[in-house]
Amino acid sequence: MIETCGQMAGVRMKKAGIAGGGLLMAAVFVWLSMRWFRGREIGAAFGELVHSPWWILMMTVFYGLSFWMKAVAWRRYVAREKEDRLSGYVYPLFVSLLVNHVLPIKLGDLARTGMLVRMTRMGWEDALHSVAIMRLLDMVSLLLIGSIGATLLGLSVSVSPWIQVALGLGAAGGLLAVSMYIRRMKTEGGKANPLIAVIQRHGERLSTTIGSRRGVGIAVLTLGSWVLEGAVVFGVVHVLHLDVNWLQAVWANSMTIAGQLFHITPGGIGTYEMTLTASLGVLGVAGVDGYTVALLSHGYKFVFAYAFGAVSLVLAAVTLAELKEWVGLRKIGRKNTE
C-alpha cells in the first residue's frame, strides 16, 4: 500500500513538473507575442511562403522522407522486414503525429502502439517495447545533433558550477535509487519478481540489437530522419531571406523538438514557438524574425499533421472508436458517464 502511494505520488510530481514547465513556457510565449507579434509583417511573410510552391514542395518531400526513414528504422528494429509492409509502420507514425497535434497532452505514442498491433498482429508488449526504444533513439539523436551542432557552429552555453553539481548529484542519486529499487524487487517471498524478468528481457533485447550491425543502421536512419526534418525550418528562413544555413536550421529544429517535453497544448503551441525563437536568437536572428519563422514553420507542421494523419486513418481504415480506445479516451468517457 505504501509503495503504491509512493508511486502515485511520483507520477503526480512528474505530471506537475511537466505542467509547470509547460505553463512557464506558455507564459513566455504570451510575452513574446505581445512583444514581437506584427500582424502585417506575419501576413506578408505568409504570403511569401504561399507564393513559393517549390520550397513548400521541398519542405513536404524532405519532411515526409524523415518519417519514411523513421518507419524503416522502426521495422528494422523489430526485425520484421519480410513479414510486414512498410505502411504498417508509416501510418502509425502519421497518426501519432496527428493525435499529438489534436490533444493537449502527448498520447500519440499510445495510438502508434495500438495501430501497430492492429496492422501487424504484433503483441502489445513487443509493440510497446519497440515504440519506447524508438523514442529513446529519437531523444539520443536530438541530443547528439544539439551537441555536435553547437560545437561546429561555435556556440557556447555557460552553465553555473552549482547547476553542474546539482545535475551530477541528481543523476547519481537517481541511479542509486533505481539500483536499490531493482535489488529490493528482485525477489518477493523468495520468488522471482516478474517485473524484473520483463525489464531484463527487454534490456537484453535492446543491447543485443543496438550493439549489432543492424543497430548501427537503425541509429543512422533515426539520426538522418532528424537531419531531414530541419528542411521545414530551412525552407521558411530561406523564403524570408534570413541568413541561416542548413546546419543551423537542423540544429535549431532539433533544439525545438527536444523542448517539446513540456507539451500541454495541441502540437506544443507556445513551447515550440518559444524554443525555436530562442534557438534562432542564439544564431543571431532578430527576435521578431525568429518569432515569425516559428509561427510559419509550426503552422506548416500542423497542416502536414492533419493532412497526412487523416489520409493514414482512411487508408488504414481506422475508426474513431478504435483511436479513442488506444489513447484511453473511451475509458475516460465511460467513467464519466457512470
From TrEMBL:
Keyword presence, Membrane: yes
Listed EC numbers: 2.3.2.3
Keywords: Antibiotic resistance, Cell membrane, Lipid metabolism, Membrane, Transferase, Transmembrane, Transmembrane helix
InterPro entries according to UniProt: L-PG_synthase/AglD
GO cellular component: plasma membrane
Pfam family, one: LPG_synthase_TM
Gene Ontology biological process: lipid metabolic process; response to antibiotic
Protein name: Phosphatidylglycerol lysyltransferase
Organism: Paenibacillus montanisoli
Gene: mprF
